[in-house]
Amino acid sequence: MDQATSPAPWTARVVTLFPEAFPGVLGLSLTGKALADGLWRLETVDLRRFGIGRHRNVDDTPAGGGAGMVLRADVVGPALEAAAEGAPQEHARWPVIYLSPRGRPFTQAMAQGWSRGAGLTLLAGRFEGVDERVLEHFAVEEVSLGDFVLSGGEIAAMALIDATVRLIPRVLGNQASVVEESFAHGLLEHPQYTRPTVWEGRTIPEILLSGHHARIAAWQRAQAEALTKQRRPDLWRAYRGTHGMDLDGDTEL
Ligand SMILES: C[S@@+](CC[C@H](N)C(=O)[O-])C[C@H]1O[C@@H](n2cnc3c(N)ncnc32)[C@H](O)[C@@H]1O
User: pTM score, two decimals?
Assistant: First the structure.
């Protein structure tokens, strides 16, 4: 396929006050190699470029009073417009996401969905956040990394990009590992072991050394179910529901 007809690779566009933070860890290891190989693309839009006045101010005091500063709509708005250039217009193929503790909790299923699209625009907040009107105007989706508050959205954007990019075909050398790992089947992953066979008096479970693939798979599944049941009752309930099981994990007749 020549350059003119080949589709653009999956693209992350990050609107941020700190473009120098990127690619950061995304430039290392598998995601870094895939970036260098052109399997995905990373672009930053510098919010400061859209700042107002001689000092390129991007923030102002919150309406109604209160602590901190808020990113201005007339700064973030033009930056999001610049980020939309060349992106497919359908929201499903190229959503605009604001990393925010108020957002929908980020999940593997969201990463899977986005990895099948064309790309994402990610708005990394700072200070107390972003003027609400700009979020409404651009139908921005808010996504949270968890119930804690970071100083800025850049680390959250990197986490979201990392989880999504590794699901793009050919980014991970071994696609089977994506299918087997935590959350892929609604379960946490089973324990993993490698050499040496004995370490500090602890041995690898014998079944894993048996070479009997079917029994190993059954053992790993049982371990994954037990771990999920113990550590994540929320995931366990959902898993039971989709697999027709009772509370203990026994299949209902
Ligand atoms: C100090 S925080 C603002 C917190 C905001 N005042 C609140 O209470 O919801 C600054 C920026 O960090 C990012 N951020 C903080 N915590 C986050 C989280 N749990 N998930 C995603 N982004 C987060 C957001 O982009 C946010 O605009």
Answer: 0.93
